[in-house]
Amino acid sequence: MITMPCISIRQPWPWAILVLGKDIENRSWATRFRGPILIHAGKHFRPDEIREDVRDCAMMARKAGHAVPNKVTLHDLKAQTGGIVGMTTIVDCVRGHPSPWAIPGQWHWVLADAHPLPFHPCLGRLGIFQVEYPHSLAA
To answer: How does pLDDT run across 28-54, given as a tens digit for each residue?
Structure first.
């Protein structure tokens, strides 16, 4: 078991980070944290919101030059909520990043080396928090 920093993100954005190459996490606040961080997919799941967000994710991925899987289902995304789903590295935190994933006016947490991990159910929290993860961190 390892204890690591973690950030909670609502689906489908963790899916976009892990599958579609989303290289920015948009936040209203800056962070000084740099390094590996676990990705927690929040429990909140509203199918009407998710459908629209999945369309947005696919459009942004294409704009960024990444392949989009043929199909992702709401069932697949719902199964990946309320726990750790992957890991990434925060390499910077800036405003005005050129990535198509960057929302103007937000802080852009620059992400690298994202990869999925075996799902581990746990509670999310606001901000960066510590979590115990019982599986291997290997990609």
So the answer is: 999 999 999 999 999 887 777 777 777
Q: Are 22 and 13 in contact (CB under 8 A)?
A: yes
Distance between CA atoms of residues 98 and 112, nearest Å: 15
pTM of the complete model: 0.86
Q: Which residues pair with 94 in a beta bridge?
A: 108
Dist CA 136 CA 120 (whole Å): 11
Other Cβ atoms within 10 Å of 99 Cβ, number? 17
- The 10 Å CB-count burial string (b at 16+, else e) for 3-35 is eebbbbbbbbbbbbbbbbbbbbbbbeeebeeee
102-118 burial string, b = 16+ CB within 10 Å, else e? beeebbbbbbeebebbe
Phi, psi of 80 (to 5 degrees): -110, 50
